[in-house]
Structure formats: C-alpha cells, structure tokens
Sequence to fold (491 residues):
Amino acid sequence: MSGEPHTEVTPLDLVVVGGGITGLGVARLAARNGLTVAVLERGDLASGASSSSSHMLHGGLRYLEHGRLRLVRESLRERDELSRMAPELAHPTRFILPLYRGDRRPPWMVRTGLLLYDMLAGPRGLSRRSSVRPREALALEPDLEPTGLLGAALYSDVVMDDARLAIAVARDAAAHGAAIHPWTEVIGARPAGAHVEVMARDGLSGGERRLITRAVVNAAGPWVDEVRRRLVCSLTPGTPDPAPLMRPSRGVHLVFPPLTRGHGVLLTARSDGRVFFIIPFEGLSLVGTTEVEVASPPGPEDERADFEEIRYLRAELGRALPQPARSPVRAVTSGIRPLLAAGEAVGEASREHRVLADGPIVTVAGGKYTTFRVMARDTLARLAGPLGREGRPIHDALDPLPRPLGPGHPVERLAEFAVEQEFARRVEDVVRRRTGLWLTPDRGRVAAAEVAAVLARRLGWDEARRRVELQRYHDAVADEERLLRRAWEDP
Fold:
C-alpha cells in the first residue's frame, strides 16, 4: 500500500484498535453478530502479552485470597468452554502443589482454597483435587526438594498455546467478515459527519489507510491510555488528556528442557512469597512469572526482560527443583500485563476489566486472557446505544474455533499456511507465533531461512528484503541469547 492514502468509504460499524486477544475477541463477537468490523494492530497479531503469558486458562487460585470469587467463577467457566472450543490448543493438565514446613500458606489453607476452586468450577469441572503424602509426592515428581516436604495437593487447570489460540480467534473473526490488518498503526482520528474517520499507517509499506466507522474500540492492552489520549484529543481538540486507567506490569518466563514428569507445579517463592509456576508446554517447561511495574504507556525498554528478573526465576527454581534447575535455559519471554490502576501493590492488583465510553470511542481496559469473551460481550453491550442495537441479544456461540495446521508438516507448508490463513507478514510472525519452531534447539534459525523464502514468494519480496527480514529474526534471537548467557554466567 503506497502512494495516495487508501480510504474505505463504506462506513464500518466498528474499528478495533489492538490485535491482542482482547481486540480479536471483540472483533470475533462483533462479526458473529452481524457487524462490519476491522482490526488495526501496529505489530503482529498477539505480539504482546497475548504470546508471552503463563500459557494457562485458569481461574486464578491466588485471587481467592483477595476475595475475588466472582472473577474466579467466571474464569473457570470460560476455561472449560474455551477448552471445548479449541481442543487442539488447550489441554487439561494436572498440577502438583508441594507443601513445605514454614510455607506462608499452611496446608489447611491450601486444601480449603482448592476445595473452593473445585466448588466454583461446578460439577462439569476438571478432575477434582486430591492430596498425597511426601513419599507419594516424590514418586510423582522425584526432583522436588525433599527437605521439609509435608506432602502435596493435586488439582487441575488448562495449559494452552496463547499465540495460536489468539490467531484462531482472528481466523474466526475473519471467517465471519472481519477485516484483519496487522502491522497497521493508528495515527489519529477526526469527525466525518455522524461517523469517525480513523487514519492508520502501514508499518511495512509506509502507506496510509483511512477507515470510516460508527464507533472505535480501544483494545490496546497496556497501551490503552496512550491510544485513548490520541483518539479523544484528535476528535475533540483542546480536550484535557483523559485520566490514566492503567498500571501495567511486566511478566517474564523462562523456557527450559522438560523439568517435570508431565505435571505442572505451583510453587511459592521463598524470597518474597509470590506464586510462580512450572508449566509443561510443547514438551518443554515454562517457568514464571515476575511482576515489575512499568510506565503507562510502556516504552520499548519496558517490554524487555530484565537481568534481575531472570536471576530471580533462576534462584527460585533452584530452591524448588535443585537438579533440573541447572539445565540450560532455552528461551525467555516478556510481556506487559494490562492491569487497571488501583491502590494495592502491583502483585495484588485485580485482573478484572473496565469498559468506558468517550463519545464514539469505547475503551476496554484490564482483564485477563481467560476472560476475553466476557470482555467482548461487555464491550458490545456498551456499544448497543451508539450502534442502535438496544434490546438486541448478543449471541456468543460455543462453535469450535478454526483448527490450526496439525503437527508433522514441513516448514514450507507451515509458512504457506501462516501467510494464507493466519495473517503472517514477517519471519518472526511464523517462527514465533504460528509454530513452535522458536523452541527447537537452534531457536528456529534453520527453519527461518525456509520461512523467509516462502514469504518472499508469497509477499513479493526482493532478495534484499528477504535478507533484511531474515537478519531481523537472527538479531532478535542473538540479543535474547546474550541476555540469558549473561544472567546464567553471573553468580
């Protein structure tokens, strides 16, 4: 897209700013309810926290301590429904919760919490809780630290592929008429009669796109404050900047070779009492997370994993599984959570969401991955007036999401499918978010060359562009590996 700006003159019902799971969930529901909708995402789909989560659909055991029973019940219902909608991408998993002498939460409190967790999940929930003695716990996971072990509790949750689940939601939205525009950044808006004209820039070609719409949904995650300010001030010049809504935090995860015998493990950090997980994923183990408050809006430096966060996870893992913790780390992920501003410490902040309107701009802020469909329903309900849909029910069917390409396909076919069906436009899009190639021992370097060749053919790249795109991926992996090497070598 180059030359004169491309203007879509037929008014849309909705433009969604943000291609993470929240924005894609809004687009899916809107399209399924007969609305015309376009998604504008400044990077790749799910390239923020939606591909750097703890990879869990869960109720949130720690929210029980803070009395957020409604959020837990709602999340557990969504966990079960999403598992049925995307069985290839969401897998029930048994978790072990070791109980140690001197833990901040005594065994009776843990067992009471798991009883309540099962009750809130309802009769159709996953396998129920149980308890085992120390010897049985070590039989299940022999590498657990045995000193002070009192036994363990067992419970169930769901492990999912966050990026590919978000892509499946995008595909479902597109199948029902939504236009999906990754690598397209919104730069402003202005009144257009009874409508809004949204101006956006294509981040790959440099061209411009203009869309006419009845309403705009700001679903930019941790950047909603900045997008809201930009849109509100563009539409009504001279208006004071809206009050901030967000208090985002960074969460880091480390990827190891498999550390357990297939269980997830819920642990308590000895240094600060925080909960962290070991999660089986793609035959490996995901360890996390951290909680570091960052600015709103976050800057590029806020998105990168910090040396101290990696050392923190390394140390806490070593206390829980001394031998496996010595394994070399495979990768690190870093994402920024879109937390609502609140008075409590950032580690205790609510994962509930808020929907509010500034004229034709509706902002959805906060929330958690598991409840993205709830956020979408609340957003469409808030839009009922502006879109003339008062009194009309919102239908949110539990139809299966589009299936991903199954395992065993050659890299060339994976890349073709990613471009043709999954909106991929760069090498990293394919290697990191449409496949598990980034988790191979060489971090997808060999595969990246094949991916680049396919993208060059499909997207019309010349040889110089192919080399630049491939080098971009190699540079990103090399930067990550340098950070990990430094963190691992530093005592």
User: Anything to note?
Assistant: DSSP finds 13 helices and 18 strands in the chain. The mean pLDDT is 94. The radius of gyration is 23 Å.
